[in-house]
Write a structure and sequence with these properties.
Its main location: cytoplasm. This is Phosphoribosylformylglycinamidine cyclo-ligase. There is one protein chain. By secondary structure, the chain is an alpha+beta fold. Helix content is 31%, strand content 27%. The longest helix is centred in the middle third of the chain and has 18 residues, at 108-125. It is globular. The protein starts with 9 loop residues before the first helix and ends with a strand.
């Protein structure tokens, strides 16, 4: 099975994004003008000494699993995480968050549980939820959708874009909590094609159902805000949909992952059940490494000691390999 075969073609999506950027030609000038180019993890606005950063994202089809077992109390964590993690990679401290819930029909229990997760995500990220929108759209929405927008600030001289990344830099990988919130179109196709139910016991963890295991919330990497202030970090990446292909967003140099993080059981289960090739797995999922920090060799040891991260490889001139498997 493949991600494209499950209905999500990353190459086609990239083409659509490129067309969108070409269409959005108007730019404000003066105070509040945009900073930098498009295509990074967050949009930046010039606010004098500071840059204001904005990013937006949703939870995706992971919501369908929450619906299947009527457990919605963690998806709010995912929503916050997918946004604030995209701010962290540029050295940005998140401040505030707004959410958007669209419903096929009013469901008070779904909304109540969703708020539990949003509040917990906000606590973990130390952000205030300052507003939001709830809409009933029976002619448009089947089920419901959850998305959000996060706002943060960073001194302009501390923005991390990846421009300082160079061959020889060390790569520190931080573990993920699981699948996070990407690749679920493929996950669901694997599970459902195998005739499994989300209420079935998890094959490798009998204490929970398969659905509960797949709903493990996305990790929020709040600790990297302090790291960005203390160390000269050259680049960071949040490994989301597209897996290791996300690394192309921060540098044109290559990556050599000689000692990748251990692959969690959930990915082994998905790969075996769906008969998925290694390359496809690493181009779709985080495979146990949800966040990457790139730095000088002399800083890598200290960063590892201050986190649960591990040195997983180094920056090279071109290409990307993980234990010899060529990604690009």
């Amino acid at each position: 099975m493949t991600y494209a075969g499950s209905g999500v073609d990353i190459k086609k999506l990239d083409g659509i994004k490129s067309d969108i950027l070409k269409s959005l030609s108007f730019k404000r000038t003066g105070f509040g003008a945009p900073l930098g180019g498009e295509g990074h993890y967050a949009g930046l606005i010039d606010m004098g000494y500071f840059a204001l950063a904005i990013t937006t994202d949703g939870v995706g089809t992971k919501l369908l699993i929450a619906d299947a077992i009527e457990k919605w109390d963690t998806i709010g964590i995912d929503c916050v995480a997918m946004n604030v993690n995209d701010l962290y990679v540029m050295g940005i401290e998140p401040l505030a968050f707004v959410d958007y819930i669209s419903l096929e029909k009013p469901n008070p229990e779904l909304v109540r549980q969703t708020m539990i997760g949003l509040n917990e995500g906000a606590r973990q990220a130390n952000v205030s939820i300052v507003g939001g929108e709830t809409a009933a759209l029976p002619d448009i929405i089947k089920g419901f959708d959850l998305a959000g927008t996060a706002v943060g600030v960073v001194p302009k001289d501390r923005i991390i874009t990846g421009k300082d990344v160079k061959p020889g830099d060390v790569i520190v990988g931080l573990p993920s909590s699981g699948i996070h919130s990407n690749g679920y179109s493929l996950v669901r196709k694997v599970v459902e094609s195998a005739g499994l139910k989300y209420t079935d016991p998890c094959p490798y963890n009998k204490k929970v159902s398969l659905g509960e295991e797949l709903l493990t919330p996305t990790r929020i990497y709040a600790e990297v805000v302090g790291l960005a202030k203390r160390f000269n970090i050259h680049g960071m990446a949040h490994i989301t949909g597209g897996g290791l292909m996300n690394l192309k967003r921060i540098t044109s140099y290559g990556f050599d992952f000689t000692d990748p993080l251990p692959v969690p059981e959930v990915f082994k289960f998905i790969q075996k059940t769906g008969n998925i090739e290694d390359e496809e797995m690493y181009r779709t999922f985080n495979m146990g490494m949800g966040y990457v920090i790139i730095c000088d060799k002399q800083d890598a040891g200290a960063i590892v000691k201050m986190t649960d991260g591990t040195i997983v490889g180094k920056i090279v001139k071109e290409g990307c390999r993980i234990r010899g498997i060529k990604m690009w």
